[in-house]
Automatic annotation (TrEMBL):
UniProt entry tagged with the keyword Transmembrane: no
Pfam families documented for this protein: Oxidored_molyb
Domain Oxidoreductase molybdopterin-binding: 72-142
The name this protein goes by in its record: Molybdopterin-dependent oxidoreductase
Claim: Repeat is one of the keywords in the record: no
Keywords, alphabetical: Signal
Signal peptide stretch: 1-27
SUPFAM superfamilies: Oxidoreductase molybdopterin-binding domain
Amino acid sequence: MLRVWLRRTSFPLLCAVLGVASLSVSAASLPAPEGEVLLRVTGNVANPNVGTELHLDRELMMSLPTRVIETSTPWTEGVGRFEGPLFRAVLEAAGIESEQVRVSAINEYDAEVPVSDLERYDVILAIQQDGEPIAVRDLGPVFVLYPFDAHPELLNETVRHRSVWHVGSIHAP
């Protein structure tokens, strides 16, 4: 009787434990970057890959769930084709649970971005425009991009201030 009970309870329990273990391994599985670091995620990072931070190069960023957004912006001419990881995917990879994050540009401009924006819209961290890496002189290397044309309500001063270009880091309190 004990043997039957063990077989009935042990196998599902073992599967559940292994399932949880594999989820935690995959969440923390980003290796240290091999290329130039484009983005540092600091603060309350549960899944760091360099010290207490998550550092991402182009390859690591593109390994996360990405999107292409074809949109016009207040800072570019015409409609551009922008590509990069979903902002929320970067936060998930870092293991960040926060209501807002601070995005800092390499020129020391900062903006607070509510995580609710990232859940409601497919905001990306654009690293390519029209198939090419975004250069620092052209809003790069990382640009917080909201899908403006798909959601005209985003064309307001508040969201424009959250659309940081020249992004160097994201900080989660």
